[in-house]
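pinned: reference chain
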Amino acid sequence: MDDKSIIELYFRRDENALRQTKELYGERLIALAYRILQSREDAEECENDTYMKAWASIPPQKPQHFFAYLAKICRNTALNMAEKQKAEKRSAVIVELSDELSECLPDKRSFEDTAEQELGEIISEFLKTLSKENRIIFVRRYFLSETISDISKALGISESKVKSSLFRTRNKLRDYLSKEESL
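pinned: its C-alpha cells
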C-alpha cells in the first residue's frame, strides 16, 4: 500500500491506517527514536505515540511527504521523552548534536523570541541553497540523529568527508542566520 492510500484510510477513520503505517514505516520510526533514546522499549513507545498523534492530526492535516511527517512527530516525541528522562543527566547524543548546532547561532538571545516554526522555515530555506549531498548529510545528522559513521556507510563516502561537509554547512548556516537576523 502506498502513502496516498494510507492517508485516505486516515481520512476515512479506518483503523487499518495504523496497521499499514506500522507495516510500511515501523522499523524506520523505531530506529529514529532509538538513535535518540538508546532504548528499544522507549523507541517502541515513541513509535506507538507517533501513530496516535498521526491519527489525531490526520485529518485535518494531509501530509504531502508522509514519512517526513511521521519522522517529525517521532523525533519530537523522542526528544521530549529524552528531556523528561534526562532532566538531571542529559543524553550524550543530544548534548553532542546540540553543541554542534549551537555554533551556528550568531546570537542566541536574538533567536529566543523567534517562533520555532519560523526558525524551521528559515532553516528549510537554507537547506534549499545546499547541494543534494550536503542537504542529505545535514538532515541525516541533525534531523534523523544518525551517527557520522552511519551516514558515511549509507552514502558510500568517507567519515572525514561527512565531518567536513557538516563543518562547512554549519558555518554556512551561521552566516545565513546572521543575514536573516539583520533583516
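why pinned: Residues 28 and 149 are 18 Å apart (CA to CA). The radius of gyration is 18 Å.
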